[in-house]
Amino acid sequence: MDTLFPAPPALPRLPRFRRAEGYPQIRIGRPEQLILCALGRFHFLSAPQLTRLLFSQGSLTYTREHLKRLFHAGYVQRLFLPTPTPSGSSPAIYALDKKGFGYLKALSAAPKGRFRASEQGQREWLFLEHTLAVNDLLILAERLARQDSSIKLANMIHERQLKRTPIYVEDGEDRIGVVPDGWLDIRQGDLQSCLAIELDRSGHVERKPFQRKVRGFCRYAQGPYQKAFGSQSLTVVIVATSGTRRLSELIRWTETELASTGAQDQADLFRLSAFDPATADPNDAFFATIWRRPFDPNPLPLLPRVSA
């Protein structure tokens, strides 16, 4: 948990989408550096997400003040999610802008791939809410490692990086591109637990596309994954954010697919649960018995607890 630094004085209020003209250069201190590095790793984050990730509980105003200055100084850009009603206030989402990317590049911490600030929001707009929800899950893993010194987050690969190198597997005459929403490498001593994350956010994915994805992961785990990631450890983690009814549906579809393809022996590859990553406790998300394995009625933890 980072120590809070004094927040700079407040700016006069401006329209949310407009930068202050002639805004002076700002000094990038530790809080600003933490924010820019987080945006380099997660690409899109809200102020509440940055607060959970970097600062202490109750410091949301502090986070917003630093984001405001980074925005007006040209280090970050500000995007707005659509609102459900015309009168509602849309939440602000932050991403790197040109100066922020340049700052990280000088530190050798810039995200890989081409960067054009004008394309950032446009390219991701349709998928932004999904990306933010996946980021909530990734943030849980970072928070878990910070809270427990016996746990190390050895690596985290964001969906944007995974999309650049999809892994194709054969499915009869078809080819399935396997691209998880995220990948985590969690260590407890000598134990390695690698997690391929799939987030079911809206419940709009229908049975056939979901079962095709299950088939893809089964084939992915039979060699292509190990070759790409250099590890034998893999658990496909499916989180339904819309509730237990959707979870039951996903479990049923997974079991049907595994049974129909004679792949029941791969049931242990999958873990499914239903919770909201934005409000979940990190310890509960990984160690509470809230997870289901296909064909097993007994709830399980996602990770085993390894004694020191």
Question: How are the SSEs placed, and which strands pair?
Answer:
Layout: H1 30-42, E1 45-46, H2 47-54, H3 60-72, E2 76-80, E3 92-96, H4 98-106, H5 117-124, H6 128-147, E4 151-158, H7 159-164, E5 167-171, E6 174-178, E7 182-188, E8 191-200, H8 207-220, H9 224-229, E9 235-240, H10 244-260, E10 270-274, H11 282-287
Parallel strand pairs: 8-9, 9-10
Antiparallel strand pairs: 1-3, 2-3, 4-7, 5-6, 7-8
Q: What key attributes describe this structure?
A:
308 residues, 5-stranded mixed beta sheet, globular, Trna Endonuclease, Chain: A, domain 1, 3-stranded antiparallel beta sheet, single chain, Arc Repressor Mutant, subunit A
